[in-house]
Amino acid sequence: MHILSKSTYIKGLQCEKALYMQKKHPYLRDKLSIEQRAKFQRGTDVGVLAHEVFPSGIDMSPNSPSQFPKKVAETWDNLSNPEIKVMYEAVFQYNDTLIMLDMLVRDGDKWLAVEVKSSMRLSDTYYNDAALQYYVLHGCGVPLSDFRLMYLNGDYIKDGPIDVKQLFKMESVMEYVVEREAFVAKNVEKLKAVVALPHSPLVNIGTQCNNPYPCDFQGHCWKLIPKNSFLFTTAMDDESLFQNYFNGVNTNAKMLQQIEPDSEEAHQIEALETNSYYINYKTLYSLAPQPKPKSIGYLNLLLHRPAVPEIDGTKPYEEMILAFALQGEHQHDAAIDPMHPTSPRRDDMADADGCFVWDCFEDHSRWKEAIDLLIEKLSHYEQIVCFTPQNISTTLLRHEIIQNQTIGYKIFNLFEVLQEAHFYHPAIKRGLTLQRLETALFSESKLFEHSRIILEATSNDLIGYQQAREDLIAENEIVAKTYQLLFK
Ligand code: SF4
Predict the structure, then answer these.
(1) Three-class SS of residue 424?
(2) How far apart are CA 209 and CA 225, in angstroms?
């Protein structure tokens, strides 16, 4: 049986303890987030599509880990079978390290190795990944003509059926992987020794816990760190926080002695100590809409960026509007002049207390209908309030829902406002999301991460669609509640 694989090798490069835990105590791993699962699924879907670039291959994927030895032997047999021109997921093992290569293509008397990535750019991890695979292939004595990374071509525009030859680009990394072979060999020996240890290596928590990826053993390694530790603050960078922590400044009280009493870090620690949140109210109120708008539309956009373009005229990861929820609110005591351009029209007054939801879940090609509808609906409100990490004005401009930047005054993005007002709560250590905001402000966590709605909306399932609509409305309610809490 093998000791290392591509994923455990990459894990070991990030943290030796993470590798050990993965091998010896995998049950202590945190649950995969919906976003991570979606990412894996996207990788698999793109990988399968990439097969069409080198079609008619034989799939070597094992059904279970117990089949690895059998698949290694079969792969080896296939190498000397001239009938076999292409193998998908060919399984090789060398020096206790097992790999499954996306595609291996016969190229004269040699083989072309291809690894597929579902992104439009190549990262260091992809290069490290390729270097490990080359190390194993070379160790096994597979003669390679080239090693290439295949990834999505951001310039490809869909026009009719997907043209896989245009959708993907390839880059040779042969020179790089050959050069890295000695480095990989050294790491493989080091990581094998880690796995052979009788106990977990002594590794302190540190910046590696989130870099380059959030480690999935944090639930285990961080369990002794108090939930209100200053390590969960965001005002200082992680490196400085850990430096203080391991230099003996390991309690909130000690940290407070080190820093300015009126600093942002101090305010955040106070919030931790009192189990509440921090906002710089002076900044917050300076950002409040003036004068108070007579009508507000709470807008929740559901944007979708499919890796493989679905609609003619679009590119990989090009954004489309899958749905929006718009909830209107009016000052009931104000006289509304139906002739005034910013006054709501009668038909909108009808959904003033409810939530208007539009979607194209069942037929994405209708997505541009959202544009005219939004232009019309948004024009009825003096203020549009939303919560999104994206620059919503840019999104609306891009789709010509608003015509110029100056209309940005009408858009009030709570995400940006809260960040500007230095909003802090320990739940947002890993980033401000609506779900975490709900936890922070209302001590509730009924919402799911926004990415779940995209999964529901693209599930090809009527129940999923219905759930997506309900979740969009639930999110919008939190946006409205937050705005009312902070500005009314
Ligand atoms: S949580 Fe941090 S210390 Fe623990 S295994 Fe992961 S990276 Fe290593």
Answers:
(1) strand
(2) 14
The first and second tokens of residue 422, run together, are 């230095």
CA–centroid distance, 218 to ligand 1, in Å, is 6
State mean pLDDT over 268-289. 93
Tell me what the mean pLDDT of segment 44-62 comes to: 93
SS3 95: coil
Mean per-residue pLDDT of the chain? 90
pLDDT of residue 10: 92
Atom of ligand 1 nearest to the CA of 14: 7
Nearest alpha carbon, ligand 1 atom 4: 221
- Given this structure, which CATH class describes domain 285-487? alpha beta
115 vs 401, which has greater pLDDT? 115
Q: What is the pLDDT of residues 65-93, one digit of tens each?
A: 899 999 999 999 999 999 999 999 999 99
Find out if CATH 3.40.50 is the number for domain 4-195.
no
> Is the beta carbon of 200 within 6 A of some atom in ligand 1?
no
In degrees rounded to 5, what are phi and psi of residue 162? -60, 130
Q: Which of the pair, 38 or 372, is modelled with greater confidence?
A: 372
Distance 394 CA to ligand 1 centre (A): 38
Where are the domains positioned within the chain? 4-195, 230-276, 285-487
241: exposed, middle or buried (C-beta count within 10 Å: 0-12, 13-18, 19+)? buried
**Whether the CB of 21 sits within 6 Å of ligand 1:** yes
pLDDT at 212: 87
> Ligand 1: does its nearest atom lie under 6 Å from the Cβ of 17?
yes
- Does the beta carbon of 215 sit less than 6 angstroms from any atom of ligand 1? yes
**Closest ligand 1 atom, CA of 18?**
5
Atom of ligand 1 nearest to the CA of 21: 5
Q: What is the pLDDT of residue 269?
A: 96
Q: pLDDT digits over 433-476, tens only? A: 999 999 999 987 788 888 889 989 998 899 999 999 999 999 99
Distance of CA 115 to CAs 12, 26, 332, 413, Å?
21, 27, 61, 40
Query: Does the fold of domain 285-487 match that of domain 4-195?
Result: no
CA of 342 to the centre of ligand 1 (A): 54
Neighbours of 351 (CB within 10 A): 15
The finding on whether 217 has its CB within 6 A of some atom of ligand 1 is yes
